[in-house]
Design goal:
With 287 residues, the chain is an alpha/beta fold. It contains twelve helices and ten strands. A six-stranded parallel β-sheet has the order 7-6-5-8-9-10, sandwiched between helices. Strands 1-2-3-4 form a four-stranded parallel β-sheet, covered by helices on one side. Helix 9 (221-224) links the parallel strand 9 and strand 10. Helix 2 (15-23) runs parallel beside helix 3 (41-50) and helix 5 (121-127) crosses helix 10. The radius of gyration is 21 Å and the shape is elongated.
Length: 287
């Protein structure tokens, strides 16, 4: 099909497809979000052949940590690894509809995304009961995870689990939040139970930035690749619950700073982290 279509460039995450387009002499970019060893022996073999084809352009990864990993193991990839964090669509922030969940006379704090191990529910379990001045809105998660954490937090009046919502509705929920949280832990175990904590580039981060929200995030190397403490977010140790509480109190009491954090994050997002800017960087790096 690629030969019939005659593309100038192929960009893909399917290793076999990229292997054959590269073999066919089509300029190919292969994107991967984890170590190749996690994909099996056959995939690793095809990868090692592909990166030596003349038509293979660059390996696209989502973090500097992953770039170092590949350049260390495959010296032939030196200067051929392109770091492009995940991204999001830009939003017309002024015209986003409300989800209708915002509560009056409280600080509305939001989290969106999965609830599996390492995503930060462990931290929120300790944070929510010591922050009665805020209401925590949890949007997303599998039913089993919602049931598990819902039972553990049953007695807490200041948390609401809104359940899974279509991705198209997420901006409306973000619109109702004063502050958003990204409490990733050092180890994050995804759907395949692999630890992705050292490589992850969370989509929700860029959605938060697109929504112009003040972010409190875990102070982790992969997140520092995007966020700057006290400029585009407040960064806290993923284990220090008291630091998260103090950050919430600071943003509760200083609305000007809260808006400034969201605005600065949005400026950086529009400059570097939209899907359009990501695609342009790939095209501009083509030989």
């Amino acid at each position: 099909e690629a030969r019939l279509f005659k593309p100038d460039i192929v960009i893909g995450r399917h290793l076999a497809g990229c292997f054959f387009t590269s073999l066919a002499g089509i300029k190919t970019f292969f994107e991967i979000h984890s170590p190749i060893e996690e994909s099996g022996k056959l995939t690793k073999f095809l990868f090692e052949q592909m990166i030596n084809f003349a038509s293979f352009q660059k390996l696209v990864v989502i973090t500097c940590a992953l770039k170092k990993y590949y350049e260390l193991r495959y010296p032939e990839l030196k200067n051929r690894v392109l770091v492009l964090p995940d991204a999001a669509d830009s939003l017309d922030v002024e015209n986003i509809q409300s989800a209708g969940i915002r509560l009056k006379n409280t600080l509305n704090v939001g989290y969106t995304g999965h609830l599996y191990k390492g995503k930060g529910m462990e931290l929120l379990f300790g944070l929510i009961p010591i922050c009665p001045f805020a209401h925590f809105h949890i949007v997303g998660g599998r039913l089993c995870d919602i049931n598990y954490w819902g039972e553990k937090m049953f007695l807490y009046p200041n948390v609401t689990f809104h359940g899974y919502r279509p991705h198209s509705e997420i901006p409306s929920f973000l619109n109702d939040f004063d502050i958003v949280l990204l409490p990733n832990q050092n180890e994050v175990h995804g759907n395949a139970s692999r630890n992705i904590g050292g490589w992850t580039s969370p989509l929700k981060l860029f959605e938060y930035m697109a929504a112009r929200k003040a972010i409190i995030a875990s102070d982790l190397p992969v997140l520092r690749e995007v966020l700057e403490n006290k400029k585009t977010a407040l960064l806290c140790s993923p284990k220090n619950i008291d630091a998260w509480k103090k950050s919430l109190e600071l943003l509760r009491d200083n609305i000007i700073f809260r808006k400034q954090l969201g605005s600065e994050a949005n400026k950086v997002f529009l400059k570097k982290y939209t899907w359009i800017s990501r695609a342009k960087k790939i095209f501009s790096s083509c030989n």
